[in-house]
Amino acid sequence: MLWSLFGLPLVVGVALLVAGHRADHHAAVVSIATSVVTLGMSIAVAIIRPAMSVPYLRGITFGLRVDGLSAVLVVTVAVVTLAVLVFAAGEFGAGEAQARYHGLMLVFASAMLLTVTATTLVTLLMAWEVMSAMSYALIGFHWRQRRRAASGTVAFLVTRAADLGLYVAAGAALAGGASGLTLDALAGLPDGWRDVVAGGVILAAAGKSAQLPFSFWLARAMDGPSSTSALLHSATMVAAGAYLLLRLEPLLAATPWASPLVAWLGAVTALALGAVAVVQTDLKQLLAASTCSQVGFMVLAAGTGGVAAGSAQLVAHALTKSLLFLTAGAWLMALGTKHLPDLTGVARRYPVVGTTFTVGAVTLAGLPPLSLWATKDQVLTATVPSAPALYLVGLAAAALSAAYAMRAVTLVWSPPTAEPRFDTEHPGTRHVRRAQSVVLPPLASGAALLGVLAVPDVWSAFARLVSHGREATPEWWEAAVSAAVALAAAAAAVAVVRLRGDVPEQDGLLRWLGLEAFARERIARPAVATGQVLARFDDQVVAGAVHGTAALGLRLARMTTLRWEPVVGGAVRGVAGGVRRLGHLARRPQTGQLHQYYAEIAVLLTALVVLLIVL
Q1: For 242, phi and psi rounded to 5 degrees?
Q2: Which residues, in sequence order, are CB contacts of 446 under 8 Å at separation 6+?
Q3: Which of 39, 206, 284, 306 could form a disulfide with 78 if both were Cys (CB 3.0 to 4.6 A apart)?
């Protein structure tokens, strides 16, 4: 069943990719049916909890296992994949490469399912590679548009650079003697090797989850289709790094410096990218920045040992953010814009989309009694024993979450103050297709109802499911404080939008703290310049030395030819002439007359006798 869980979407996805345009007409139906079956199998494996291991190389295995943590994740991935593929059926029209798109999505989903069930670094690396390749293809799906293709390249290069850490970790684990490269064996590595493994894992996870300083690649990823953002950048790829840190929390705990580093990395990212989200004028950019911020809470939980809290945050965020990305995509298709000032009043115009967007945004704001309020409190509670400063930073990040979410809600429900500009990105259809709207209420219901995790008994059951240890639950005053902070920040955001029309623009925050510009100026351009210098060195010095050596050899050959060829040639010609003359002389006695031959023999015998007498 584990083979089938990731094998079915993989095989069907590859078949759609190979079929190409011939399968466009049936691609959506085939991919949706595949995802329905995959969802059924994910529920089955979550109940049965199977495991498998097959030999890969000597001493190294290819292993998969469904435990409590991965059981929750495989069901979440399957649910979101199904919802996104149904939405995508209405997002793409006739003449578009639907088979290619649905094939890429299914292969990506297969890789994500493989990631969350992997038990060895070999399995994880295989899935990690496929995820990276598929994300590149999906972000740059409309590759004929130069910016979108370039955005796919930026996302690919940034994440791949960070992914090198996972290879370093695998090499260190192998050198350190990790049995079979299993993930469970990493925490028991000797000092030194364990530090290298932890550093590589943190680097790879930070890059994949768009944590600082890698966050800017997620801004460029928003140039992909909205359904791509809903799957890759809510429940799967961006969450994969956080999941890896949660899975390897024992490794972080065993490495003295790793847990504090991860906790502060998540907290600072949650705060900084929350501030970035507050001022964004593009709805998808706002959601992207908020994704970095919310994933920061998951990373914070991994650093403080809150495996259950981080897992709950991951699941709640997956449902909430996939809902919000899909509603943004519905408006983008209908109106041809995702510019927030031009989306004022659209919730009134499209009430189903507007209502579900509001549910998702209020959930994202962390307002009680919805899901992210409950999971955020669990994450903050896990920080208290580690460092109270982390709690304060996390609380400030939670306030920013309420601010940017309620700002968006207020704008989409406010009556327009000026004539909105539609069709700025592409011509809008002015309607939302049924396939797009039908998946929004179930996602909104799931995002809201997961607030049941705030009930102590429910939370205890969930914590026992995904974590071996017992995790603290929030005190009443902690829940009250976080609720008060979120409500106050939400009220402040609503008041600012109502009184001033919107928040003032901040250029640095609007450009994502200048992270992409910094990477371009301080990393990309110096790397290109260094490459050009090395290329010139290769052309002028290395290649010049090769050409010079060849030229010198030719000159020496010519000099040798000029000096020695007459002598050698003359000797050869002299020998040949002497042989030729001897041949002429040898032919003279050959007359064919017998008496002359006898005379010649007699002369020779006489000469031999004389020689014998003399000698």
Answers
A1: -65, -40
A2: 79, 319
A3: 39
